[in-house]
Write a structure and sequence with these properties.
Blueprint lengths: L1 H11 E8 L4 E8 L5 E5 L9 E6 L6 E8 L3 E6 L14 H4 L3 H18 L4 E5 L5 E4 L1 H6 L4 H4 L5 H10 L7 H16 L6 E4 L5 E8 L5 E7 L1 H18 L4 E5 L5 E4 L1 H7 L3 H5 L4 H11 L6 H17 L5 E4 L5 E8 L5 E7 L1 H15 L9 H18 L3 E8 L2 H8 L1 H17 L6 E4 L4 E7 L3 H16 L3 E3 L2 E3 L3 E7 L7 H17 L5 E3 L14
Parallel strand pairs: 22-23
Antiparallel strand pairs: 1-2, 1-4, 2-3, 3-6, 4-5, 5-6, 7-8, 7-11, 9-10, 10-11, 12-13, 12-16, 14-15, 15-16, 17-19, 17-22, 18-19, 20-21
Length: 539
């Protein structure tokens, strides 16, 4: 066997020299696939190789005239030309017989040159005749399928090539599926089906096979390695599958803001089907589609502005998170991230529980647990803000301090639950009688405060009297008994002579003290003193 292979290599691979420039220039070469019509030459460099030259083959005395038929990286295909000394005279007996064959000889030479070129191709090529037998198998295919030269040159049937792959365990398929695969593949090639088919080999390589039908009834099969492409495609599919199963909504936009991928969670948020997502809609189209789905809990006037602003933010690649309330009650946080290719990744996270928890914490930090009014600390924060506005614009500002009368008597007679009920009733009255800018809080055990912006002392006294009357007319029912609730109120109007909001609080506190000392169930207004910030309160 080794002797036959050495003999075959000696016939197909020989040394030689390329002679040109009147045979003064010489290039060494290796001669492959030598035939009477031409050969394939391997050289170190194609630089300097002319279009026509003489080829001196080792073992031959006379060089052969050649011309280039094709060339690749380090190889050229040549056709042998008949020199004038070899051309028989036109009156020679055999000249007339040779002349008619000149056209077919040229065609044959072109075909040989084409075969030699295909033999140097990086992709596998198999040429089948109408009987599905291999007339030509190039070197790349032989290497892909570990096909011996002797078998390739024996013109095997296409089905024999497929079974050779099974015998060499080249396929990734289980043994039980190979016969069906081979039968299906033979049927596809016989039908001339041009659809590409990817074949996975046990080595991990992936070959893409395509079939082209010839007018002669034959077939040309090409086998191209697409391992890297398929591997990247597989990795992309794994990534897509992973993203499709996360709870967050993910949308990938290209540089022109068309959605290349929208996962299941994002499709549900947008209210679109997989088919609509597959059409790769523009981001502005997705945003404007929310008008029809009614996804956002926004008035129509605000929705247009929000959509325009969101489109501008995504185009700018603004990473700032945006929280949006939906009509179903959920709160979705949208974020945008720039991608290296100029695209965008949009992330949608359901933060309903997070936001509600934050709201609950804020409510606990700012609200009195029993009355659901603001607590003392938050009232102080809001009062400081109003005081700053008063100092800036000198607009009227009045404070009411309200105290429940005889809370201890209610607790002693009916229990502490009755006292709590009385304060809850007071809080409800204050809440229903307040304006939007008014600030109402529980600032002590039975003490409440009401800060009235844009309200002077006279107006505030009307408010105080209305609150007192409303409470007196709304008794608290305790153990079947109607208990009348009365309050004492101290009023103080802010003045420029006061150094801080503390001075306003002290003035209202003194007025409240005077109201309780004067018999309770009344409102007393603190008036400024001539020699100081305020005087003894007057009813």
């Amino acid at each position: 066997m080794e002797e036959r292979r050495a003999s075959h290599r000696s016939r197909t691979c020989r040394g030689g020299k390329i002679l040109f420039n009147n045979r003064r220039s010489v290039l060494d070469c290796t001669i492959r696939n030598l035939s009477p019509e031409g050969a394939c030459l391997q050289v170190e460099s194609l630089v300097g190789v002319p279009a026509a030259f003489d080829l001196l083959i080792d073992g031959e005395e006379a060089p052969r005239p050649c011309r280039l038929a094709w060339q690749s990286d380090h190889r050229v295909g040549v056709q042998f030309a008949v020199s004038e000394s070899q051309t028989p005279p036109t009156d020679a007996p055999h000249a007339r017989a040779a002349a008619p064959r000149t056209g077919s000889d040229l065609i044959r030479n072109e075909l040989l040159g084409l075969r030699a070129a295909l033999d140097e191709a990086k992709f596998g090529v198999v040429l089948l005749d109408a009987e599905m037998r291999a007339q030509f198998i190039n070197r790349a295919f032989r290497k892909m399928w570990r096909l011996p030269d002797s078998k390739a040159e024996s013109r095997p049937a296409f089905v024999a090539l497929l079974y050779h792959g099974r015998d060499t365990r080249a396929y990734e398929l289980p043994e039980s599926e190979l016969d069906d695969y081979i039968a299906q593949r033979v049927a596809e090639v016989k039908a001339g089906n041009p659809r590409p088919r990817d074949i996975r080999l046990a080595s991990g390589e992936v070959l893409r096979c395509q079939c082209t039908a010839l007018l002669s009834g034959g077939r040309v099969l090409s086998y191209t390695s697409v391992t890297d492409i398929v591997r990247h495609s597989d990795e992309l599919e794994v990534l897509r599958a992973a993203l499709d199963n996360v709870e967050q909504g993910i949308a990938l936009l290209d540089a022109q803001f068309h959605a290349q991928f929208i996962n299941t969670a994002a499709r549900k948020l947008a209210g679109i089907s997989p088919e609509e997502a597959g059409r790769k809609p523009h981001f502005s189209q997705l945003m404007n589609g929310t008008r029809l789905t009614g996804a956002f809990d926004l008035p129509a006037a605000e929705l247009d502005a929000f959509i325009a602003q969101r489109i501008a933010q995504v185009k700018a690649g603004d990473p700032a998170p945006v929280d949006v309330r939906r009509t179903d009650g959920r709160i979705v946080r949208a974020q945008c991230a720039m991608l290296p290719d100029g695209g965008r990744m949009l992330i949608y996270t359901d933060v309903t529980d997070l936001v509600r928890h934050a709201e609950d914490l804020e409510r606990l930090a700012t609200t009195d647990g029993m009355t659901n009014l603001y607590n003392r600390r938050h009232f102080r924060t809001l009062a400081e803000a109003e005081w700053s506005r008063f100092q800036r614009y000198h607009r009227p500002l009045t404070l009411l301090l309200i105290d429940l009368d005889r809370l201890k008597t209610i607790n002693d007679r009916f229990g502490h639950a009755a006292g709590d009920m009385a304060m809850i009733t007071m809080a409800g009255t204050f809440r229903t009688n307040r304006r939007e800018p008014d600030i109402v809080a529980r600032v002590g055990g039975d003490e409440f405060a009401m800060l009235l912006p844009e309200t002077d002392g006279a107006q505030a006294q009307i408010v105080a009297d209305r609150l007192r009357q409303h409470l007196k007319q709304s008794p608290v029912i305790i153990d079947g008994s109607a208990v009348t609730v009365t309050v004492s109120i101290g009023l103080a109007e802010a003045s420029v002579s006061m150094p801080s909001v503390d001075a306003l609080l002290k003035a209202a506190d003194r007025a409240l003290y005077q109201a309780k000392a004067a018999g309770r169930d009344r409102a007393v207004v603190a008036v400024p003193r001539q020699d100081g910030p305020f005087d003894v309160a007057a009813e």
